[in-house]
Design goal:
- The structure is a homodimer.
- Chain A is α+β, with helices and mostly antiparallel strands.
- The first copy, chain A, has two domains: about 140 residues, Sandwich (Jelly Rolls), CATH 2.60.120.10; about 80 residues, Arc Repressor Mutant, subunit A (Orthogonal Bundle).
- In chain A, about 40% of the residues lie in helices and about 20% in strands.
- Chain A has nine helices and eleven strands.
- The longest helix of chain A is centred in the middle third of the chain and has 27 residues.
- Chain A is globular and about 50 Å long.
- The C terminus of chain A is likely disordered.
- Chain B binds a DNA duplex through α8.
Chain lengths: ~250, ~250
DNA sequence: CTAGGTGAATTACATAGGTTAAGACTGCAT
DNA sequence: ATGCAGTCTTAACCTATGTAATTCACCTAG
């Protein structure tokens, strides 16, 4: 079944735990109902909104972001295929940030009740969702470290390592290449740098043969070398979770 | 009952929802078993550890932090009285960061089983824990914004606003003053600045009459003014959660 | 009361990264 | 074809912040 193999949410969660056929089917149905599309610079959710649905990105890139009053913008995190837009916000009163599309995005809108049914009936799913939320928290912490301590070159290199590994987890890499639909302005907003300096830094990374970046395609000739330059330690992505080996009944 | 009123965990959670007497009692018992103490610069948990307990800070300040290979250190977040050290890490293989004490710290160690019992029997407690985890995620996002976009002065001002409000939520402020046991080196590690620049910035904040900082005591003469300087919007702390008004059976 | 350690303050100087501006390239819409 | 709009690139210049080093003021252990 094609969908089963290509649903990024399933691919992502299976890095952590093996899902039963039924669970996968459930996720697939969920990801095929209420599917929406949005163009490249739209908002999926806005600060202040109070979503009553859970949105899952199926294809394309989005980001969490926040504006300051004077126009400065920080991209808080990247929302890649398979990622939730608003995990568990049902508890909170309103969104404290916005989620915008960076490319055309396809996403599924799950009504709240549907999510609750799924997790109630399938503890392994709610376990997997929890794992996902915890990994996202870890990623956010790592961005804190990047923004606080790493210099521009390390920071950019670190970002690319992270993107590559996250995309690989959802089957969106080919060899040592992947999509990178972020503009330099986007990278600047994500890494707290100016566009000019992002450009300088990319040139430097290219000169060091650490990356090849043509159009929207990123190639990493030597991942180990890039990781070194970034002081990148993949432990925070928790790709080695034990759940994976606990049981395998599908 | 004195303990009931001074347990910072209860005070914190009650900002979000009203707890029943039984629930509070449960939290109190939890917070009085397995109590540990640690001096000012110790580690409560280390990167790589695999904690089988849930640690709750009862008094004193701690922080999550991470070292880079060359000695740079980033404080990722502050762990204040009433905060969990390791919410839900049972799912993950190992700690991807350390938690260290900034002052002498008293904390309770809850065995995993105990936590699971509590949340299983008291859905409102697990709801409250979830709220807490979500607020922590929001705080982490706000730090990302601070580190990425705010200049030193705004950044420091923002930190002080946040600390003050968080402490007020657990009854640790007096008027417009609170404890601030962070050294300037600590603030530097938290805000991604050098010690010298932290000092300069503090002088500036003092000259602007935005803060009074003597010894370990911070006073904020005019909170609105400080918030302005920081572009501080408290919405991310979600102190207005609706759960608070839903029911009140205690 | 003295030594050594820690935190704060300040100065002089260095630099990573920001700002502004302008040109070149791209793709798309008319 | 033409023209606009977004993106990338580069250059010249500027500044917020970092680095190094010194002094002072505590505090605590002997």
């Amino acid at each position: 079944m094609d969908l089963l193999a290509s649903n990024p949410l399933i691919l992502k969660l299976e890095q952590f735990t093996r899902l039963s056929f039924e669970e996968k089917q459930l996720l697939n149905v969920a990801a095929s109902e209420g599917v929406r599309q949005i163009g490249p610079r739209g908002d999926i959710i806005r600060e202040g909104d109070r979503p009553q649905t859970l949105n899952i990105v199926l294809s394309g890139w989005a980001c969490r972001y926040k504006h300051l009053e004077d126009g400065r913008r920080q991209i808080i995190s990247l929302v890649l295929p398979g990622d939730f837009c608003d995990s568990h916000v049902f508890v909170l009163r309103q969104m404290d940030h916005s989620i915008g599309s960076l490319t055309p995005v396809t996403y599924a809108q799950l009504p709240r009740r549907r999510v609750e049914e799924m997790t109630a009936k399938h503890p392994r799913l709610s376990q997997a969702f929890l794992w996902d939320a915890l990994v996202n928290a870890a990623i956010q912490r790592e961005w804190t470290v990047s923004l606080g301590q790493r210099h521009a070159l390390e920071r950019m290199a670190h970002l690319m390592c992270e993107i590559f590994l996250r995309l690989r987890g959802v089957g969106q890499t080919e060899g040592n290449s992947c999509d990178l639909p972020l503009t330099q302005a986007g990278m600047a907003d994500a890494m707290g740098l100016s566009v000019v300096h992002v450009n300088r830094t990319l040139q430097e990374l290219r000169a060091m043969k650490l990356i090849v970046l043509k159009g929207r395609t990123l190639t990493i000739p030597d991942i180990a070398a890039l990781q070194d330059a970034a002081q990148f330690n993949p432990n925070y992505l928790h790709l080695d979770a034990e759940g994976r080996h606990l049981d395998a009944n599908d």
